[in-house]
Amino acid sequence: QDEEKWDFVLVSDIHEVGSEKEIKRKKFLDELSKKGFTIKKIEDKKLFYGVRAPKQIFRKYQWLLGNPDRRLQEPNVHHDIPVTTRIRIVNFILQNTTTPDLEKLHDLMKKKVFEATFPLHEKEEVREFLKEKWARWRDIFCQQPIEKIRCYFGEKVALYFAWLGWYTCLLGIAAVVGMVIFVAGITVFSSSQVSKEICEASDTIMCPLCDQKCPFWLLSDTCTYAKVTHMIDNEGTVLFAMFMAIWATVFLELWKRQRATVVTDWDLYRWDEEEEELAMELINNLQHEPRQYQHSYFRSTIVLLLVLVMIAVLIGIAHALVIYRVIATALFTQSNFEFVREQATTMAVMTGAVLHYLTIVIMTKVNRRVALFLCDLEKPRTFSQRENNFTVKIFTFQFFTNFSSLFYIAFFLGRINGHPGNYVRIAGKWRLEECHPSGCITDLFIQMAIIMLLKQTISNVMEYLVPWIAHKIRKKQRRPKKRSMMLGEEEEAEDPCKRQWLSNYQLNEVNIFSLFDEFLEMVIQYSFTTIFVAAFPLAPLLAFCNNLFEIRLDAIKMMRLCRRMVPRKANDIGIWLQVLEAIGILAVIGNGLVIAITSDFIPLQVYKYTYSPCMMGNSTGIDCSTGYINHSLSVFRIQDFEPYTKLPETLPAFAGHEIKEYRDYRNADDYSYTVQFWHIFAARLAFLILFEHAALCVKLIAAWYVPDVPQSVKNQFLDRKHSNLRKELRWVMPQEV
Questions:
Q1: β-bridge mates for residue 206, sequence order
Q2: What separation in angstroms does the CA of 374 have from each of 293, 301, 382?
Q3: What is the helix (H) or strand (E) element at residue 49, kind and residue range?
Q4: Residue 109: how many CB atoms within 10 A of its CB?
Q5: According to the lineage, what is the superkingdom (predicted)?
Q6: CB 152 within 8 A of CB 126
Q7: Nearest residue to 322 (alpha-carbon basis) of 411, 215, 397
Q8: Which of 341, 212, 216 is nearest to 654 (CA)?
Q9: What is the structure's pLDDT at 653?
Q10: What is the pLDDT of residue 374?
Q11: Per-residue pLDDT tens for 601-633?
Q12: Residue 165: what are its φ and ψ, rounded to 5°?
């Protein structure tokens, strides 16, 4: 039965005899035969070549990289090599076999000599177990069989699922805390003094929100919006932002411990990737010379400049989204439908968020092309180095694609738009957007909610449906051919390999980025969950629900819809760990800025402790934030409007006087900033510095408090070293020991 196990299958179109492609194919297969490979050919609509590597290749591998103690004791005993290692070695040899024309398999596939290469999904016990107990929706709350995943897909995939399971598990805690904060916000929905003041301000007349067709409006009209804002923007949010900064650190520290335990069980803790790669090169070709390490400052400078150009383009796209929202607001306010006119700003924000999601989808594809091009420019030495370079670049591009627009809403919206009579305009025509009198945080909340929901619903549905539909279509195309084979050529249909090879070929193609894409998706989600969590306390809950499905979705894709992945050996999640640590630091900065700049938390505290009635000495049972809204508005004389601002025809009956209000801290006579503005500005900066230093100190303490490597792992290595030294002594002085 072992003789019928094939390591890899190569698929090719049936080329004419004597054609260039047929000659190239024959040359490549001849090279494999010279290396001792067994090749089996099966003909259908395509040509299938099964290849099996000779046993001595695996013996060489075991000899070079096996346990040195075992080598001393029993040099002739052949231990069975795991299937995952077998596939990995064969894949390496296939990819690095060179024909006399100096072409490798990669070049031949580009020239359509071969169409596909893949290892087979075997009908083995592990696979049946994984299909039944892991790749099913009903197991959504069950623990994952990491050891079995490793036996079938290799260490890299197993570590991805171990990490994803661990992340989801700890997200559960963050989701519960986020829910508590959100529910607490709902309970104070109507009781907030600030929103009460907005709801009762029926005689406060505000400046128009656009130049044409926009009426003066009453502050009390925005009562509901104010309540929603104060549901998100309260003291609990500050505590939650602090909690999430600590959570991010503790999660990574605990993951390092978990990973150390897992890879020690696999005996990979001190595994050396470079040694593994050199051993494979020598097994493939004994004359191989290793490629030396090189560094070119010129090449690095070019790559850096191109990366900066790409980032500038992505920031430009964020600007385009801002311009869209400004123009959309202007158009919606001129609409003939009353509802559209009233909700112009909210509609502009929501359609802007959908447009942002579409740019994310499109730019993801562009970013990948650019990152690959930059990696080719760098000429990395090894595959893993190339993968690391690619990871850093694509993450940087994706980060700017996803977050530029959010950064604008959080930190610039409503702060750079001037004041009535002197607005900042785009192309001298359209006014920049303003913040709502109760703050900008709701805009950020809406944007985050829409993007996260769209990413998690549409993207996940597409991620599952596209491979599922593609698989069904490929299966259908095959069926009629199969039946005629059964009737016409009975003896060939009996070949057990044929059915297996065909069914594997009908599955969806996997490539070296299949696992990378899953990681990238999760790391971007982790960024959303931590960086702006102060504005969106439900982010961890959405991420938690998404991940429960994501684990099974990925499992079903890998087991049932896609060809078998080439297993990769690994002892950690690679450069992703550094990326996650960088996000942890960005999360502290981001949340600090959201609370200091976007939220109304600081102006309200400054008012409470400096200007409020409580400070005047007559604070008998009065709420300290009483009068805050009036304090945060400035007055404006109608005659100072710009000449091309079209004033509303009919002013409200009670608005005979010429003074209207807007949200800012400015003097009534020359519209310069008041003392309060600078007071609040100083308080914002002081809070930011304090918050970030406190959060970073807590992060450092948490990192110190939770050791990276558990004591049990350290003790295991200590015992191993001790017993090895003892053995050495036994060899040298048997009589003394």
A1: 217, 661
A2: 18, 12, 15
A3: strand 47-52
A4: 15
A5: Eukaryota
A6: yes
A7: 411
A8: 216
A9: 52
A10: 92
A11: 898 889 888 888 787 766 567 778 888 888 888
A12: -65, -40
DSSP secondary structure of 199-261:
HH-TT-EE--SSSSSPPPEEGGGGHHHHHHHHHHSSHHHHHHHHHHHHHHHHHHHHHHHHHHH
Q: How many Å apart are CA 322 and CA 316, to the nearest integer?
A: 10
pLDDT at position 78 over 60: no
Please name the residues in contact with 395: beta carbons below 8 A apart, sequence gap of 6 or more: 520, 523, 579
Q: Mean pLDDT throughout 514-527?
A: 89
CA gyration radius, the chain: 32
Is residue 209 within 8 A of residue 345, CB to CB? The reply is yes
Q: How far apart are CA 3 and CA 22, in angstroms?
A: 28
Sign of torsion over alpha carbons 723, 725, 730, 731: positive
Alpha carbon dihedral 568, 569, 574, 576, in 10-degree steps, equals: 40
Q: Give the residue from 555, 547, 558, 556 showing the smallest Cα distance to 523.
A: 547
In angstroms, the CA 593 to CA 177 distance is: 21
Tokens for 275? 């040694």
Number of domains observed in the structure of the chain = 1
Half-sphere exposure at residue 632, Cβ-oriented, CA atoms within 13 angstroms: 25
Q: Is residue 67 part of a domain?
A: yes
**Backbone φ and ψ of 156, nearest 5°:** -65, -45
Decide if 81 is inside a domain. Answer: yes
Dist. CA 599–CA 10, nearest whole Å: 59
Q: Are 439 and 234 in contact (CB under 8 A)?
A: no
* Residue 106 domain boundaries: 8-120
d(CA 10, CA 24): 14
**Helices and strands, counts by H and E, the chain:** 26, 12
The answer as to whether 44 is a domain residue is yes
DSSP H or E stretch at residue 723? helix 711-732
Strand, helix or coil at 587? helix
Cα distance between residue 561 and residue 725, in whole Å: 50
Residue 439, Ramachandran bin (φ over 0: left; ψ between -120 and 50: alpha; else beta): left
Give the separation between CA 539 and CA 6, rounded to whole angstroms: 47
Q: Which of 192-201, 332-341, 639-648, 650-659 has the lowest mean pLDDT?
A: 650-659
Q: Amino acid identity, residue 240?
A: F
- Report the C-alpha gap between 611 and 616 in whole angstroms: 8
- Tokens encoding 350: 């929501």
Q: Is the separation of the CB atoms in 28 and 113 below 8 Å?
A: yes
Asked which of 483-487, 617-621, 637-641, 687-691 is least confident by mean pLDDT, the reply is 483-487
* Cα 596-598-599 angle, rounded to 5 deg: 75
- DSSP 8-class letter at 638: G
Coil vs helix vs strand at 673: strand
Q: Is residue 496 part of a domain?
A: no
Q: State pLDDT tens for residues 263-317.
A: 888 888 888 888 888 888 887 777 777 778 888 889 889 999 999 999 999 999 9
| Cα 48 from Cα 12, distance rounded (Å) | 7
Joined together, the tokens standing for residue 287 give 């004359």
- Would the CA dihedral through 569, 572, 575, 580 be positive or negative? positive
pLDDT of residue 158: 93
pLDDT value at position 489? Answer: 44
CA neighbor of 503 nearest in space, from 123, 152, 245, 197: 123
Separation of alpha carbons 599 and 529, rounded Å? 18
Task: Say which residues have a Cβ less than 8 Å from residue 580's Cβ, sequence separation at least 6.
Answer: 252, 523, 526
Going by C-beta distance under 8 Å and a sequence separation of 6 or more, which residues neighbour residue 725?
none
pLDDT over 50 at 666, yes or no:
yes
What distance in Å separates the CA atoms of residue 296 and residue 427, rounded to the nearest whole number? 44
pLDDT of residue 696: 87
